Amino acid sequence: MDATRYALLIAHFIGLAAILGPFLEQWRSDVKRITQTMVWGARAQLITGLLLVGVAEMNDYDVDHVKIAVKLGVAIAVAGLAEVGAKRTKSLTSDEPAGKVTTFWWLVGALTVVNIAVAVAWR
Ligand code: HEM
After folding, report:
1. Angle, vertex CA 79, rays to CA 76 and CA 81, nearest 5
2. What pLDDT is recorded for position 94?
3. Cα 103 to ligand 1 centroid, rounded to whole Å
4. Measured from the CB, is residue 44 less than 6 Å from ligand 1?
């Protein structure tokens, strides 16, 4: 069961990288986009996170349900914002304001960092 937990935790970190990698890559771009990699990263965080909770429960590890509820709420917001932001990214044209997706880009990146802070600092 430890091997399953490690595999899921590694996938959880890859999902995190898939969100923050493209986010940071665009830091200095004038036009921000929500890429498909970010969308799949956000989806992966929800799936791997819930599976990690399942594995923890099966092993009788102590799971802090309030912490998990907060992480789940933030992760749902990240995934929802990524989905909508990606749709808006697809409809971006050269004559549209550059800021159209910027708010989504900011919120996805910032809320992901919030979830990292919750993951590591909430003990
Ligand atoms: C954007 C979304 C998310 C981010 C950025 C994120 C980030 C992280 C990070 C950095 C860790 C490692 C913490 C450490 O080992 O000290 C972690 C662990 C964990 N996360 Fe997430 N997480 C997200 C979503 C979720 C969701 C939605 C759930 C469950 C509903 C979840 C459940 C867990 C669990 C159970 C662990 C502990 C794994 C273990 O040590 O066995 N995460 N998360």
Report:
1. 105
2. 67
3. 24
4. no
